Structure formats: C-alpha cells, structure tokens
Amino acid sequence: MKKILVADDEMSIRLLYSEELKEEGYEVYQAANGREALEIVEKIPLDLIILDIKMPEMDGIEALRQIKEKRPDLPVVLSTAYGEYKQDFATWASDEYLVKSSDLEDLKAVVKRYLKE
Amino acid sequence: MASERAAFLTQMVEVLTSTVSFGERLNNMVHLLARNLKVDLSLYFGLDKARETLLLNVSSQGPIPPHLRLEFPLGQGLVGETARTRKPTVVHRQQPGVSAANVALEKLHPAYQTLAAFPVADDNFLYGVLILVDRTERSLSAAERQGVQLTCLMLAAALRQAIVQEEAKKRIAELSVLFEVGKALSSTVELDELLERIVSTTAKVITARGAALHIINTATGETRVSSRYGQIPPESPALPQITPSGAATEPPYYEGESTDATGHTHYCLAVPLTFKGQLTGTLGVYDKFNPNGEYLPFDPENRQLLFTMAGVIVNAIENALTYQQVEDLAERNERMVRNLTALQEISQIMLTSVQEARLQEIVLQGLTLEHGLGFDRAVILMVDEATQTLRGAQGACRMPLTSDLPNLKALQSPPPGMIPVADWEVPLRADQGPLALAVLRKSPYHHHQTVKEPGLPPALAGKYAAQEFFVAPLVVKDRATGVILVDNQASGRPLEPERLHALQMFATQAALVLENAHLYSTIETNNRELLLIRERMLESDRLAALSSLASGMAHEIRNPLVSIGGFARRIAKLVEPNSPLRGYVEVIQEEVTRLEKLLREILDFTGENLSYYGDHELAKLIEDTLILVQRDLDGYKIKVLREFAQLPRLHCDDRQMKQVFYNLFQNAIQAMSHGGTLSIRTFPVEKSDGLYAATSISDTGSGIPMEVLHNIFNPFFSTKDYGTGLGLAIAQRIVSRHYGQIEVNNEIGKGVTFIVTLPVAKYCLVKDVGQGAVPASVLKTPRGGRQ
Question: How confident is the model at residue B783 (pLDDT cuts 50, 70, 90)?
Fold first, then answer.
C-alpha cells in the first residue's frame, strides 16, 4: 500500500484529504507543519507528500527544500490557498503545484499519476 | 707833431667806431696805419679759436690770395713770438735770426728791412698781432709807437665787442630756433602730429633737406614710432646707428657722408634721443644746403643745436606718449563702461523670463543688437550630456539698425533674424575644433586666419563659415553647459581682444541665467514626474494593502471553503440518490464552487497574481530609483556613495524592486534630515543554494531605537507622523516574493544598514526563458529542480 503524507496546518483539510485518499486505497499520514512532515519523512518510507505552503514553525517551501535534500526521488505536491506562489521559482522544486479546491478530483488524479505502478 | 698824432688818432677812432661791418673796419684801419706811418705794408694776424696759430686776416695790399694765407704757430717767427710775449717789437732784417725766422713774410715783401710787431690784446685776451713792414731800415718814434699801441688797444676792444656780438647773435639764433621748436612741440599733444612737427622744424632750423625720427622699444627691438620729413637720400642710412664715442665728455652722435650715382655728396647727422624706460631713438638730419642749393657738411654748431633740440624733443614725446596711453586707457574704460551697461541692461531683461528658449532668444539679441554687444552673428550651442555632443540651440543675425531704437528695451519684443542651427551637432572631443575645445577647456577662443589652430569642425561644413570668430564657453559652477559663437563676417568689423573679454563676461551671465532656466524646467518636469510617481506609489501602496488583505482573506476563507466543499462532496457520495439531503448537499457544493470562483476573481482583480518579471540590471534599478529621490537628497544635502559590483541580471519585477529601493531610500533620507551620506553597495553573496546579489543601503542617521526595532517590518507600524507604516512591510513582502531577504543592521547613533539579498543563479537555470544572458560560470544546478 502506497504511503502518502498530508502536511497542512488546517485540521479539516488534513481530515478531508486523508478520508479521500484512504478511500482511494492509500496509507495516509498527517503532519501539522513542515517540521512534523520532515520527522515523518525520516521515519516512514513515503511514496508521496501533499504539502501546504503557509504553515507555522516551518513553512512548506523550507520543508520542500529539506525533503528534496533527503529524498530527491520523493514526489512532492504543493497544495496551497495561494495561487500566486505557482510563479515563484522556489516552489518549482515541487513536482506539482495545485491551488486548493473543494473539488479533489484534480488532486486525486495527480496522486494517481505519480503512484501508478 | 702833437696835432699830427691827434689827427691820426682821430682818424683811427673814426674808423673803428664807424657803422660798417667789423671786417671792413679792420680793413680800413690796417690801410690807414700803413698810410699814416708811411710803411710799405700793414698786416693783421688773428689768433685762431684753438689759440695755437696766427693767421693772416687782413693786408693793406688788399684781398689775400689763397697762396698767401700765411700762418705762424704761437711762438714762431716775429708774429708768433709777439703773440707769446705780448710786447711790441721792432726788428731789422740784418739782425741775427730775423731773416730766417720770418722767411714766410718775404712772400709778401721780398725786400723788407724793418718789421714792427704789436700785440692786439686787452687785459685778458690776445686777439692777434699787427705787423708793419718797410723796405727801409727805420725805427718808430715814440709818438708813432704810442699811436700804434693805442690803435691796437682800440682794435682789441672792437674785436672783443665783435666777438661778443657774434656770440650774442648765435645765442639769439639758437634761442629763436628753440623757441621755434618749443612752439612746434607745445602746439599739439597728438603724437603723430607732434612727430611730424619735430622733424619738419628740425629740418628747417638746420636748413637740411630732410629729417627723420625713430623711436625703438629696446625690449622688443620694434620701432615704436617713426616720422620723416623732406628728402632723405637713399644713399644715407634711414636709421643711423649711433655708437657711443670713445670720449666720455662727448655725447655719442652719428656723422656720415655718401656719394650718389651723379657724384653728389650727401651728408647725414644724427643724435640719440634718450628716454626713460625702455625707449630709445634717433633724430637725424640729411643734407644741409646753402642758398645756392649746394649740399654742405654739418658743422659742430649744427650738432650742438641738434643735441639741444633732442633734449627738448624727448620731453615732448614722452608727454605725448603718456597722453596717448592715458587716452587709450580712457577709451578702453569708456568701452568697458559701455559693455558693462549693456550687460547690466541685458541681464535685467534676462531676469524677466525663466523659459529656456525665450532666454536664448534674449541672449542672442543682446549679442547681436547694436546697442548690445553688436556682433553680426551669434549662435548658442548647448552640451547634451547624454550623447556628449554640442547641439545647436538658437542662432541669430544682427537686425538692421533702426534709428528709433532708444535702448535695449527693444529686446523684449521682436524676434531677431534667426539662423537655423537645430541640426548642428559637434561631438565633444578635442579633435573637433574650437567649439568642443572651448567646452573641454572651459576657456574662450579667438579664431583668426593667422592662428594655426583648426577652424570650425567638419560637422558645420556648409552650414556656417567665418574667417574670424569668437567662442565663449557657458560655464556654471566649473561646468561648461554650452558655448556662444559670434562673428562679424558680414560687416567685416574687426574682433578686438577687448570684445572677447566683454563676450566672456556676458557669457558668464548668460550661462547662469540659462542654467537657472534649465534647472527650472528640469525641476518642473521632475515635479510632474514625482507627482505621478507619488500617485502611482500611493495607489500601489493602497493596492498592496488591499491585496495583502485579500490574500490573507483568501488563505483564511479558501481553507474552510475547501473543507466545507470537500466534505459536502463526501456527504453527497454517501447520500442516497433519492434522498432530499442530496439537494441540500448539492446546494452547498455549488455555493462553495461559486465562492471559490469569486475568490479567484478578487485575487485577479487585486493584481496579486499579476507580475511583470523580466531581466534587469540591479545597478540600473538602483539608479532609476535614486532619480526619484534626488530632490530630497539635494534638499537634505545628502551625499550618495555608490559601489556597484559586476553582477548578472536579476529576474524580477522591476516595478516592485524599485518600490523596495524607493522605500528603503525614503527611510534613509528621513533618518538624515540634517544631511549625511547614503552609501549604496552591491556585491555577490555565495550561499549554499546558489549565488545571490546583495544590495546594502546605509544611512548615517541616528539608528533605530531598540524598542521599535522588532516592529519595523510589521504592517501599519510607523514612527512617523505621516506615512502608512507599510513601507518596510511592503519591501519585505516584495523581497520575499522574489525569494530574497531583507536584513537590518542597526547601530544606535551611527545609522542603519538594510541589506537586500536576491537570488540570481538558480532561477535563471530553472526558468529557461531565454532572456537575459547570464554567464555560465555563475549558474548552479538547483536542488530538486523540476526535470
């Protein structure tokens, strides 16, 4: 079973994503900020990360940088409320950039694309 | 006997006091003596001026032919001996030594036997010797002797009188000459006229055919003045060289003679004119002539007269020279006053306008109007700093002078005859002729045909030509802003050096006024621009605040919306298709979708997503921004130090980056309201993730108080009475949006340094947009780049 980490400071978002992804057949971990996300990356052999940008303690950009240092192969999908970050090159280290939407079909499609065997 | 003697003496007195000329009286007396004393011959030997020789002057035999002009040196023969002893003597031929000593007398009377000699002398002087000759050997009675001696005494008195008379005549002649000369000299102070009179009077009083005068400057060897009169024979030297004579007592003079082709001898006499100072001269006369028109050599009396005249002349000439200098000075002063008056009037009129073009017009009119500087043509060229060229601004020709032009007030109305100069363009290089040189050297220039310097630049060929012209730079605060070019080509009037001086004074005035006008227009433009920029900045401040709000809201609203919508969709999946709940859930989904759409539109509207990215040079961004604050920098007397490193271009939104610098500059300026130094430095910073370009902006203000330091980047925080408090917050936001950083180094009492660090290398590789060349050496492989 593929392991996905959802890192977002909003509990409701974490819950929504987890529910949806579990339904798709993935094992889902959660983190409330970048630091927690990094801890999980250290411990768990993850297959994909869904990362929010605006988070307390450590934001998604810094987390992305450190994750890519540890696991360059690990796909990271940025999922954020800020559309404009898409233009900023620091986020381009991510494999995908999605603006959060209540319609999760795009997100699921992206995940599926990265995790198909 | 006594009556005979009395008769003899009476005759003698009658002869000697007669009114006939002295020579005749002497002649008569000698004859009378011979007759009365019944001697064969009576002779008078006169002592010459040198008082060395006695010459036979008169003989009772009549006129003396040249071969009988006897002479005896003092002490020789009876004549010489009597002159020496001053004692009457009677000798006879057979007495020893008499015949031998007086052989010469045998020419007059070969058979003489008796010689009687009487000195003609008074108490002081011996004038000559009287000799009586007879063929018989006889003696003179005491009475005869006494009679002759008395006669000799009377003769001496008459001679003395004659000499005195002669002297007096000479003195009178000399005095009248001097009077003549004095009259001529005092009749004028005009140098030329004076010199003419000197030479003509000199020639006349010496009765010479010609006269010439030269005055030479000994320092330069140049002839200062010269004048000539009458005929100067070509054989004689025009400028006689007077060499000092060997004798210390005799002043130096020149005397020469030459023979022309026809065999005539010409004479020349010249004496030096000795002036005070550096002048020296000669006064020469040529060819003295007698009433028959024969040329004669000059005698010592002429020489003496010439010397006397030279002394008088020198004074007169010196006076005239001084007078001429004073007149020259007065004329120059008058010209100066005229120029200054014109300058003053023009400058007053110049103050009536601040429009550059109008002022140029006024300057040109001042240069070309007859009542102004009165040049035929004038052109103003201004320096174009950007292209380093001189460009024609305006040019004008002199207006025809109307008689009803009372003063320079006319400047205020009509435009002069304009010369088209808009296409004049002269590069500011030393090889581009006098116009460029005047700017580069900041010095005026007078071009005329004899100077070796090049004329007008080839750029003006076919547009303008002048053999002689002035160029005066327009210099303000040691900076040449342009040049004025003037000439008198049309009228051919000379361009005197004084006029260049006046032009330069005028140019100084004009430069200042034109510069003021230029500054005024620059300030006007700058003000307009600043107003626009300020408006734009205020707007962007407001927009930034709004978008910041909207962006914050987006984050706050979007997340709950995603949750609400997301969970609504999840519920919808669980609800039975026919359940009434399904409709409710769909409403929630639709509304959330609508809200999300609205949110996107708001963000689009606030421009949060709009960026103007491009490749820009950091130094240029800084310089462009400095222009916006230049007025404040000048106003607060803040010096700007720049130190820019060579850096690759930045990929950034230039407007936003300028906003960052603008805000930081504004803070620095406000911290230095009493003056200071704004130091701007750019330098590369190597970080673990690539190359960054850093800009440090330091002020020399008092620093940020510790208690507010932690707040400075917070929005709406301000220590100022004015301002939004968003300045640093916006700067920080923009910098962080560019993935850079703002740091602050605060030193209380010394100032604040903000350091803006922006990434350069990583971005350029990641986003291969193909614009902005970046050297490969600075490119770094980004970590985790999208492949």
Answer: very low
Distance from the Cα of B518 to chain A's closest Cα (Å) equals 45
B369-524 architecture in CATH? 2-Layer Sandwich (3.30)
The pLDDT mean for chain B works out to 80
Interface of A with B (CB under 8 A): 10, 12-13, 15-17, 19-20, 54, 64-65, 68-69, 72, 81-84, 87-90, 92-95, 100-104
Considering just the CA atoms, what is the radius of gyration of chain B in Å? 58
What pLDDT, in 10s, does the model give residues B265-282?
A: 888 888 888 877 777 888
What ipTM was predicted for this assembly? 0.88
CATH code at B187-325? 3.30.450.40
Contacts of B555 in chain A (CB under 8 A): 54, 81-82
CB B483 within 8 A of CB B453: no
Chain segment B393-403, per-residue pLDDT in tens? 888 887 654 44
* CATH 3.40.50.720 applies to domain B2-168: no
Residue ranges per structural domain of chain B = 2-168, 187-325, 369-524, 546-605, 613-778
Domains of chain A: 3-115 (3.40.50.2300)
Residue pair B470/B444 in contact (Cβ under 8 Å)? The answer is yes
Give the highest mean pLDDT range of B227-241, B242-256, B358-372: B358-372
Max avg pLDDT among B25-34, B409-418, B451-460:
B25-34
Fold for B613-778, please state it: Heat Shock Protein 90 (3.30.565)
Burial B543-567 (b: 16+ CB within 10 A, else e): bbbebbebbeebbebbbebbbbbbb
Element (H, E) at A74: none
Tokens coding B414 = 């009509």
Q: What is the pLDDT of residue B778?
A: 36
User: For A81, which of B554, B763, B786 is closest by C-beta distance?
Assistant: B554
